[in-house]
Amino acid sequence: MFPTTSYINRRNNLRKEMSSGLLLFPGNQECSFNYLANTYSFRQDSTFSYFFGLDHPDFAGVIDLESGKDYIFGNDVDMDDIIWMGPQPTVEEQAKKVGVTNTAPLANLEAFIKDALQKGRKVHFLPPYRAETMIQLEQWLGIHHSQLKKAVSMELTHAVIKLRSVKDLLEIAEVESMVDVAYKMHTTAMKMAYPGIKEQVITGTIEGISLSYGGPVSFPVILSVNGQTLHNHNHDNILKEGQMLLVDAGAESALHYASDITRTCPVGGKFNQRQKEIYEIVLAANLNAFAATKPGTPYRDCHTIAAETIAQGLKDLGIMKGDVKEAVANGAHAMFLPHGLGHMLGLDVHDMESFGQIYVGYDDEFRPSEQFGTAFLRFGRKLEPGFMVTNEPGIYFIPELIDQWKSEGKFTEFINYDKVETYKDFGGIRIEDDILVTETGSRVLGTPIPKTVAEVEAIMAK
Q1: What angle do CA 81, 82, 86 make, to 5 degrees?
Q2: How far is CA 315 from the centre of its chain?
Q3: Pick from 418, 280, 315: nearest CA to 323
Q4: Chain centroid to CA 136: how far?
Q5: In CATH, what is the architecture of 4-165?
Q6: pTM surpassing 0.90?
Q7: CATH superfamily ID and name for 169-460
Q8: Whole-angstrom Cα distance, residue 453 to residue 462?
């Protein structure tokens, strides 16, 4: 847990962004796995964690803008709980750790909210993403769950996005510690990537590293020799010589801050010439986009730089042709890069995605593209100091997409389909770093994870 003053300051900063009313922050509940008492590991709601810091199910926080009071509603444990879990601190004791002195049982929250509503006060809440929370909000607010989306407070949504987007030194250190855990995960995966090993064995090993040094993985591990499938969670393949292993994985801290790293390595420890050529293009895209990442630069421009680097590199190999800028402007590069450069990172691996990409990654000046590929850029607005973003360009040879575009005669002025056909067995390569925007530029977070051809081959040789 961060110092008490961190949570007090966050709530006070939020007050400055809001006009009037109650700010309601439901914490998460336990979520059953396959029967009621067998639950998944508890994960607190990120925004409740940001403002109230308590990692306990069935809590709710309220900020009263008029009275200046903060509240935590939750239940103390009973004897049955103590028998199974041991003694637990009271709600009052927990609340004091985050600077809250007003507490009450969770059952009292409904009457508290309805009293405010009867007095004509506004109750602000954020977009819910769990069914259990929707049911709670329906009960507390009297709004049918199907209508909650319409009643979400945009004033609160924009205020929370503004505050959570800029990371302080404590948050930066927390994320950086999880990048260091990701270093252990990814270098271990590289050392294990040899013929005869099953993907699942590597997956389980690196998940164990995350649990040993941080917490659970920050998202389900993506690990596959079929890297052309962007989010491939099938781990059934046996590694073979000549394949590439793509690993996209990160760790989550006890305070729920995430890392998100991707590396791609050659099975057996040595890149062949074809693999090296494509890898070097992706690496150049990663480095060129990073060099452009600084305050005031729209991240959409960094995406374009990565896309043009990829198009130029593929043109040099005879896979693409024509004018590079024109090819990217028309979206021809998206056959090989069908996603955006990156997203925000923090308490969520896709930070604040539940609020809506249109509000987190864009603003009135910068709007999402409707073009295939670039439409999946989750973050396009201007960068500011304290922002954390991922930088994750890739090149993928997706046989089904190649066949579709070829049959449609799409972008024949920019794509050499005869050459592309010879890469349909290649798979995909992605290289991803976690980036902090600084006052003067940006820096890659954490211990440097092997990224160049020489670094990857060297760590795999150990």
Answers
A1: 125
A2: 32
A3: 315
A4: 26
A5: 3-Layer(aba) Sandwich (3.40)
A6: yes
A7: Creatinase/methionine aminopeptidase superfamily (3.90.230.10)
A8: 15
